[in-house]
Amino acid sequence: MTMLNLRAMKRIYSLLLLLFISSLSLPSAASAFWVWTPETNKWINPKYSVKETPAEQLQVGVDFYEAGQYKESIQEFKKLIKHYSRSRQAPDAQYYIGLCLEEQGNIYASFKAYQLVIDKYPFSEHSAQIVKKQYDLGVELLDGQKGKSKFKQALLGDEYGVVDIFKTVIKNAPYGELASQAQYKIGLYLLEKKLYQEARDEFEKVLNDYPDSQWTKAAKYQIAMTDAQRSTRAQYDQKVTQSAVAEFEDFLEIFPDAELSEDAKLQIYELREKEAENNFLIAKFYEKQKNYKAAKTYYQTIVNDYAKTRWAAPSLKKILKMNQKEE
């Protein structure tokens, strides 16, 4: 062996020794990522490994869940679903993912996770529980968005996530006890968003789809409220105001002893005030145009049909004044 070859061999040995020493100085956590298993004759990463049975894998996730380690719990449940998708523990794992997300405060994400149980495992024993949980999540999201900024609403869930959740509750259990409540909540949410026609349509569905429900009374009242909200201040076209009055009167006729009856009477009074004001403004318009006959007709309508409003007395004075001019 030449001197040149000896020098080359020494360099190789020195490099190998250096690599060996360096490997000993690495943190122990690094070597733990991959472990040789004689059973499988493979290198495996414990982070991604799965237990031998779905029951064992489920228990790992449950242990993390009960310890409040929800992120780790979700990872373990996802492993189960990936490796044992057809096992009887798979729907349990998906259900627990929903529970974890709910505990983390991810309302809309937990709703979607629960829905996966129904979509992928329609015969799961969790179905009834999930419908109730989804309804409660919808109520929580609805309450949470009241008075919240758009930024906070985005954290809670999609702006129309409330509607999505309640519609899903209805789809999952159309004849269940929560269906009519969910339908009513959709209308309530849209009413709060000032989407009056859309809200009215949803309240109508309560009456049409669930006529025997205890929520029909409240829906009937809210239909009148949507019309009342839609009616603007003393405009010439008061058809919506008249419709609201008719709806409240209809409500009183059907539910005379309801708790909302006094509120309905107050709403009727305020709406009739608005109608009277509208007629008064029209009368003044004709009076300025010197069309006294038309003006007098509107003033007289107020005196005859809206005698209990604050516009009756000034209308009567206007009529008397015009009568004096005619003499």
UniProtKB/TrEMBL annotation:
InterPro entries: BamD (IPR017689), BamD-like (IPR039565), TPR-like_helical_dom_sf (IPR011990), TPR_rpt (IPR019734)
UniProt keywords, alphabetically: Cell outer membrane, Membrane, Signal
Annotated Outer membrane lipoprotein BamD-like domain residues: 226-324
SMART domains, per the entry: TPR (SM00028)
NCBIfam families for this protein: OM_YfiO (TIGR03302)
Name used for this protein in its record: Outer membrane lipoprotein BamD-like domain-containing protein
